[in-house]
Amino acid sequence: MIKIDDALGIIKNEKIKIKSVRVELLNALGRLLVSDIKSPIDSPPFTKAAMDGYAVNSSDKSESFKILEIIGAGDVPLKTVTRGTCIKIMTGAMMPEGADKIIRVEYADEANNRAVPHRKEIKSNVIGKAENLKTGDIVLSARKLMPKDIGIIASIGMKAVEVAEQPVIGVITTGSELKDPGNRLKPGEIYNSNGLQLCAQIIAAGCIPKYYGIVEDNRGKLSGMVSRAFSECDIVLLSGGVSKGDYDFVPDVLKEKGLKILFHRVAIKPGKPVLFGRKDNVFAFGLPGNPVSAFVIFEIFIKTLLYHLAGLEYKPALFHGRLKRDIKRNDTERTEFHPVYTYREDVIPIKYHGSSHLNAMAQANGLIMIPQGAGKLKAGDYVDVRPI
Ligand code: AMP
Ligand code: MG
Q: Which residue has the least CA distance to atom 17 on ligand 1?
């Protein structure tokens, strides 16, 4: 059994060639940007009005201003503002020559083609050329693209971006007791939740799932399915059958297929039996069958691999809050991830009786880590929460 950090180190140590592809912005959400984006333009490209109003020169203390012309966003001013004159301007329009300030429309009356301020305008209400960005500035560094990032990239005129190719991730669920949802259970059977849960985690991580369904605990059948998945996927996830039971064939079958086991068993709770290996350019994970274990292992290890394959480091944005109740445990051998509900500063541990208790996760919006060796986290302690 190795420590979590050592297991993460092994994943991050794997050398791989990042393949990237250009995608249109409409298809770029959730994809991993592989390199920095520099702005090809100044933003804004010209000095512009931030308010509807009257463009004047700030040194001009005239009591009223003759309106030379009216310009809207997209217009180019034809006149130059001189003493005693102004140009009526709308938000977003290009500032005219001679003007450096806008008296907002609410602060002036208009009569006989003149603007007469009745209140002092203390702000300039102008956005300078390149005030937001200069040509060549780094706009975004490599990251998972979120909706605001798509807006930022569009704002500098780029219609496509270079992102990591989406790995195809195969999901094989092993277990003779499993039935897919929609079927009637016979005695001894349970529903397969890992299959669809893992596919959902794969999609949410911006990758492509390939679901192979259920394989019963049969060496030959598993072997056939693993061969197929290895030839069709970049990463293969197998759930169940990775422990030490008589019918846990996953480790042996993976070895038979030529997988080099890079780690098997990690000091993590839930999820200790997890296995990770590689064959040529295909990676495989054996995940414990208990659904909370499979979920947590995806969060901790598989996401790390997915980012690593794109040349990035997976760093979830942690919340920070105060534990509402003590958490105690006797077995301190492993680092434990515990579901919590976080609201504002409060981190409330969810009552949860182990890795098969999937529905406890319904109330959780995060996981907290109880470090190896720690028997207790005290109410009032500050903890980091990993959002889920
Ligand atoms: P295993 O890792 O195969 O020993 O399975 C551990 C526990 O998880 C057993 O109670 C299994 O019935 C259950 N389990 C295994 N696979 C799944 C699955 N795909 N969905 C839900 N529960 C599962
Ligand atoms: Mg099993």
A: 289
Output the pLDDT for position 366.
97
* Residue to mutate, 253, 290, 297, 356, ligand 1, most ligand atoms under 8 Å from C-beta: 290
- φ and ψ at residue 107, rounded to 5 degrees: -100, 5
Q: What are 264's two structure tokens?
A: 């098997």
Q: Which ligand is nearest to the CA of 177?
A: 1
Closest residue by Cα to atom 15, ligand 1, is 289
What domains appear along the chain, each with residue ranges and CATH number?
4-16+166-309 (3.40.980.10), 21-42+138-164 (3.90.105.10), 48-127 (2.170.190.11), 319-387 (2.40.340.10)
* Residue 289 near ligand 1, beta carbon < 6 Å: yes
Interval 69-95 mean pLDDT: 98
pLDDT of residue 17: 82
Spatial neighbors of 71 by CB under 8 A, at least 6 apart, are 77, 87, 88, 89, 90, 93, 94, 96
131 lines ligand 1 (CB under 6 A): no
Over the stretch 19-62, which tens digit does the pLDDT of each residue have? 999 999 999 999 999 999 999 999 999 999 999 999 999 999 99
Say how many CA atoms lie within 13 Å of 188 toward its Cβ: 3
**pTM across the whole model:** 0.92
